[in-house]
């Protein structure tokens, strides 16, 4: 993966993507959120998943997922992880016409080093998917082209974190915090830039193996943008969170 910088071109006429709500693990098959690009995207409010439902979803997880789940010390992180993986099994399994517990996860090669820790994949299908979990919210997307999603909560102190981003994004967040830039509070701007960056880097499959200082995806309110062969959209999520989706054009 090269270290050339890139700059996204905002599309102010784009519309933010409204995800389908995945409200239950008990409904088979999962609803398909269809649109013209062969994409489905689902949001789960983790507070709405009852204990009985969570038990059902947990039973679908494989040994590696159970081990990973048990490694989380904070219960809310463990719960979000379990719900994300159960939801991914449900929507990916539905797309493959197999039960959720029969989905076998694998990994694409990392575009940085060639090792098998790139984008996650489901064995036996060309369907692409991406998942993201944070306490309170889970996003899962499936597509027929490489895809990345990210959901994040607004940070308490965005200026303390802003330095991880592209220098111009850092400057925009700092200016918003000082009150010298309109168009979104600093926390909103941070979350926009960070979720766009993570969705993009997860779509590529390098993740944070690529330095997030390199790509300018912007902190502005434009809900769509393109960067190279990738299209990015903001995703509509509840107050206090920000989310984005990246889709490769082919
Ligand atoms: C991918 C990554 C950005 C996720 O960050 P996060 O905000 O903590 O977590 P999210 O909930 O949004 O996403 C997690 C999911 O991303 C997916 N993911 C992990 N690595 C990924 C990659 N390289 N590409 C795309 N998706 C990836 C997995 O499905 C993961 O789910 P899991 O952790 O529950 O198994 C981060 O874990 C990362 O960058 N990892 C790779 C770092 C690296 O240096 N790799 C080496 C390159 S040579």
List strands and helices in order, with pairings.
Layout: E1 6-7, E2 9-11, E3 20-21, E4 40-45, H1 51-60, H2 63-71, H3 75-96, E5 105-107, E6 120-122, E7 128-134, E8 137-143, E9 147-153, H4 158-161, H5 167-178, H6 186-204, E10 215-216, E11 224-227, E12 230-234, E13 241-248
Parallel strand pairs: 1-10, 3-4
Antiparallel strand pairs: 2-11, 4-8, 5-6, 7-8, 9-13, 11-12, 12-13
Helix pairs in contact: 1-3, 2-3, 5-6
Bound molecules: coenzyme A.
Gist of the model:
This protein is α+β, with helices and mostly antiparallel strands and 250 residues long.
Structure, described:
- Strand 11 (224-227) and strand 12 (230-234) form a beta hairpin.
- It is built from 6 helices and 13 strands.
- The protein is an alpha+beta fold and 250 residues long.
- Helix content is 30%, strand content 24%.
- The two termini are 19 Å apart.
- The protein has helices spanning 51-60, 63-71, 75-96, 158-161, 167-178, 186-204; strands at residues 6-7, 9-11, 20-21, 40-45, 105-107, 120-122, 128-134, 137-143, 147-153, 215-216, 224-227, 230-234, 241-248.
- It binds coenzyme A.
- Coenzyme A (COA) binds at residues 81, 84, 110, 112-113, 117-120, 131-133, 150, 198, 202, 205-209.
Task: Give the helix level as a range of percent.
Answer: 25-40%
**SS content category:** alpha+beta
Number of strands: 13
How much of the sequence lies in strands comes to 15-25%
Regarding CATH, which class? Answer: Alpha Beta
* Series of secondary-structure elements, N-terminal to C-terminal: EEEEHHHEEEEEHHHEEEE
- Oligomeric grouping of the chains: single chain
In what order do the strands lie side by side in the largest sheet? 2-11-12-13-9
Largest sheet: 5 strands, antiparallel
Overall mean pLDDT stands at 93
Per CATH, the architecture is: Alpha-Beta Complex
Q: Give the N-to-C terminal Cα separation.
A: 19 Å
Radius of gyration: 18 Å
Q: What gross morphology would you assign?
A: globular
Q: What is the CATH superfamily classification?
A: 4'-phosphopantetheinyl transferase domain
Unreliably modeled segments: none
Number of helices: 6
Number of domains: 1
- CATH topology, by name, is Ribosomal Protein L22, Chain A
């Amino acid at each position: 993966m090269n270290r050339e910088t890139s700059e996204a071109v905002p599309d102010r006429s784009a519309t933010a993507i409204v995800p389908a709500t995945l409200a239950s693990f008990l409904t088979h098959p999962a609803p398909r959120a269809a649109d013209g690009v062969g994409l489905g995207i689902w949001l789960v409010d983790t507070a709405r998943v009852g204990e009985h439902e969570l038990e059902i979803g947990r039973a679908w997880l494989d040994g590696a997922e159970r081990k990973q789940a048990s490694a989380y010390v904070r219960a809310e992180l463990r719960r979000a992880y379990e719900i994300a993986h159960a939801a991914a099994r449900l929507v990916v399994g539905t797309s493959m016409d197999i039960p959720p517990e029969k989905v076998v996860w694998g990994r694409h090669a990392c575009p940085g080093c060639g090792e098998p820790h790139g984008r996650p994949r489901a064995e036996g299908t060309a369907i692409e998917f991406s998942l993201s979990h944070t306490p309170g919210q889970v996003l899962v997307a499936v597509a027929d082209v490489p895809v990345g999603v990210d959901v994040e909560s607004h940070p308490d102190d965005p200026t303390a974190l802003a330095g991880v981003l592209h220098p111009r994004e850092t400057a925009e967040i700092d200016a918003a915090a000082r009150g010298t830039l309109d168009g979104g509070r600093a926390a909103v701007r941070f979350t926009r830039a960070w979720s766009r960056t993570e969705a993009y880097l997860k779509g590529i499959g390098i993740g944070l193996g690529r330095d997030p200082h390199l790509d300018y995806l912007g902190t502005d309110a434009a809900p769509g943008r393109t960067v190279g062969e990738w299209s990015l959209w903001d995703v509509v999520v509840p107050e206090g969170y920000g989310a984005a989706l990246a889709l490769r054009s082919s």
